[in-house]
Amino acid sequence: MAPAVELESVSKLYGTFVALRKASLSIEQGRCCVLLGENGAGKSTLLRLLAGLIRPTHGAVRIFEQAPHDTRDRIGYMSHAPMLYEEFSAAENLRYFAALYRERDCLTPDASLAAVGLDPSLTRPVGQYSQGMRQRASLARVLLPRPELLLLDEPFSNMDAASAKQMLDLLAGLRAQGKTIVLTTHQRELAEPLADILLTLQAGNIASLVEAAGARP
Fold this sequence. Notes:
The chain has a domain at 3-84 and 149-211: P-loop containing nucleotide triphosphate hydrolases (Rossmann fold). Helix content is 27%, strand content 29%. The protein has helices at 43-51, 90-98, 109-115, 131-143, 161-176, 188-191, and strands spanning 3-14, 17-28, 32-36, 58-63, 75-78, 149-153, 180-184, 197-202, 205-211. A 6-stranded mixed beta sheet has the order 5-6-7-3-8-9, sandwiched between helices. A 3-stranded antiparallel beta sheet has the order 2-1-4, with helices on one face. Helix 5 links the parallel strand 6 and strand 7 (180-184).
């Protein structure tokens, strides 16, 4: 099976600042790669390169053996910011985003919310949600167009222990369905049971890459 993600000596420069330096990586389909590192290490830059939101200065990025901009229909990107309209309910948000995918075979808003454990009939505005609910609503938005590759920037951010465990269980379920997942986190101990690959970035360099046991049956 062809890799879901390939980086070949990828560097990203902003002027003279090197955000990512000669990174090479291969992730097989259906695996989970957890990106670790301090703020500014290059985690979000790497995720944005995979999403096709920015282009490498040097090197090549391939998603399912193609350039990221040619495979956007197969990519789901969840940024650190929720990208939801806070005055709308989760269902109203998802109905809006679903209208942007009229030509695609998407989940219904109700099915996408149910998949992340949220009640589609909840009328409370997203701005009044807990952080855990807000993150799950963001994930529901990402799941709408049925992506094969999930790119998640700090999905456990600012969650309490119970909410983080809910998110971890959701991601484990998606991984079991064959989704490929690349996520960033500062909480190694939380994400480690999900990981096939633990990749640590330091000042734009790959400091270590460890094959982990992951959550395979």
